[in-house]
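Suppose you are handed only these lines of text.
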Amino acid sequence: MKKIIANFKMNQTQSETKRYLMSFASRFKQNDKVEVTLCLPFTNLAIADLLLQNTQIKLGAQNISEFDSGSYTGEVSGSMLKEAGVEMVIIGHSERRQKFKESNKLINRKIKAALKNGLGVILCVGESLAEKNTLKTLESLRFQIEEALKGLYENELEKIIIAYEPIWAIGTGKNATAREVEYAVKVIRKVIEDDFSAKAGKDINIIYGGSLNVRNISTIMRVKGIDGALVGGASLDENVFLNMIGLI
Ligand code: PGA
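From them, the structure of the protein bound to 2-phosphoglycolic acid can be written out as follows.
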């Protein structure tokens, strides 16, 4: 079963999401090929939880506080997300690393906060264009993964999905090729194998994200070892997203 995850980023108001979900949920036919998760802005979680109640579509968030509660103006904690019906949270997205200066150490603390609250984690990692051009993809992925997963127990990896999202492919219309994705998948499995065990390396869930659309999704989903997709821009139109899901 492929994990297909939508990342709405900072798009749609509550009423827009309500309209989207009424259309999406009524037309989406659950089958044993896909598990769909929608990662929405915080303000749209409550209405989504209500509208998705009798479906198997899961709800996700796009950020989490490293803290449990207290004087942290503007932050949202893991227990708040859990009670809002969230099952998974995106952590370490390159937009947060770059635009909000999130470090690997902070990402590590956020992962621990998510796990503590029983939330699944979509950990985003990926090389920059400069790293790709200087053949540093392997090094870059290894460093990001090792820093993010520091101190985790092997049995916690079942709650983690690693999203390979090359920075140069996000929102650019330039997706990674099947060969590039296959290479990254191998690298990620090897890092997990080295740091945890051969079994962990084999079992870890790895998905791809970056300029996925109706034209490239089936090719990328056929790459050996790929467990799913993280879809940004193309998930915002429910017709396009449903078409993409239908191609898997
Ligand atoms: P994109 O975004 O599909 O718009 O490239 C993917 C992501 O950032 O998760």
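What can we learn from it? The chain has eleven helices and eight strands. The mean pLDDT is 97.
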